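From the pipeline queue, job 12 of 40. The input is one protein chain; the requested action is below.

Action: predict structure.
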Amino acid sequence: MRVLPSVLRCLLPSLALLASAGHAVAAEPLLDAINLYRSQPQACAGRASEALPPLGQDSRLVLAPGVSDWQSALKATGYPMSSARMLSLSGPKDAQAAMAALQESFCQVLLDPQFIEVGVSRQGNDWRVVLARPLLQGKLGDWQAEGQKLLQAVNAARGQARQCGGQAFARAAPLGWNAVLGSVAEEHSRAMANGNYFSHLDRDGRTPGDRAELGGYSAGSVGENIAAGQGTARAVVDAWLASPGHCANLMSPQYRELGAAYAVDPKSDAGIYWTAMFGAP
C-alpha cells in the first residue's frame, strides 16, 4: 500500500537521522507509554482490544523538523512501507499529556495490530508519531514449514532463562510438534486473515480451548499466542518475547506441545496473521 526531486531525495535521509539523534531522548517517554498502553487489553470505541506486542523503533520513521509531506519523506529514507499512519499533536507539554491526547483521539490507531514499528519525534510542544507496517520480505513456505520454523524459534527461546516483565522463568524443556494443534492454529490464522480481525475469540465466540477441543485435541491445558503483520516466524517470536504476557505463555513449563501456522490475505489490514497453540497432553 507512492517521488521527490533528486536533491531532496539525497538530503531527507540524513535529516531524518539528525531528527532521531536530536529528539530521541525527549520522545522516548512517549514511546514507552504507547507500548505500555498496547501491552494491556484496552477499551476503545466500544470494543475491547487484545494485548499487543511492543512496537519496534525504526529511525527512518522519525520525522525531521519541517517535513510536511511525511509519506514522501519515508519513501526517501528507503523504508519499505506497506501501510502507515501519522498522528500529530500540538500543545502537550510532556509525554504524559501527549499520551492522554493520543488515547482520547487516536486509540483505534494505537491499538491497530497491523502496525509493528514506530517513530516518535518532538519539537517543542509539537509531537508526531508514525506507526507503520513494512512490506513482507521474501517468500514464505507453506504453513506447516513456517510453523516448524516458529517451533524452532520458540524452543531456542525456551532454552534460556529469561525475565518476562516482572516474572522470572527458568529454562524450559523444548516443545514437540502436534499436528492437531497445527491444524487448529491454521484454521484460526485463516479465519483472522479472511475475516480481517485480530482476536483470541473467533467470530462464533469460541475460545482457544473450545477450538482445540473441537479440533480433536484432548488436553489438560491449552494456551495461545497470536500476531499480525510480522513477515517471518523469527520476527513473530521476537515480538512475543518483548511482550510480558506473550513471553510468559511461551516460557511456561506446563506446556509440552505446540502447533503453529500463518495465513495471508492481501485484502486484510495486517496482510498476514499468525497463531501458536500450546498444549499439555
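Job complete. Residues 1-25 have pLDDT under 50 and may be disordered.
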